[in-house]
Design goal:
119 residues, mainly alpha, 26% helix, 0% strand
């Protein structure tokens, strides 16, 4: 496989949130106060509060009849990362390359089918 190095500009978008929308850019930026602190996002008991707020914002913005967070991943950099010893970390570490994981159409269909098999 051949690789090609491509320069990509990265811009701090803070303060420019209102200039981006889903229809034109494929994403939108929202400021949502969910009342959680930094460490709360790594506390499984606090996550339903976040997901509930996230689902409500997306439902409202998209005009959807239903929005449900059914799978998530939270990455938190360990001070030892990256380590050449292949040790196990407490949290999933930041990705080192751009990826879409299994969210290609076939993977998404299988994932949603599995999550909704009891409905």
């Amino acid at each position: 496989m051949d690789y090609e190095m491509i320069e990509v500009p990265v811009t701090d978008m803070r303060g420019s949130e209102k200039f981006f929308n889903l229809e034109e850019h494929g994403f939108a930026i929202f400021k949502v106060d969910v009342g959680l602190g930094y460490d709360d996002y790594h506390n499984p008991e606090q996550l339903p509060k976040y997901f509930s707020k996230l689902e409500a914002v997306l439902k409202d913005h998209l005009g959807a009849s239903r929005v449900e967070v059914f799978r998530h991943g939270i990455r938190k950099r360990d001070d030892r990362w990256p380590s050449p010893t292949w040790q196990t970390y407490t949290h999933e570490q930041p990705a080192t390359v751009v990826h879409i994981g299994e969210w290609v159409p076939q993977g998404l269909k299988l994932e949603t089918k599995e999550e909704n098999k009891d409905r």
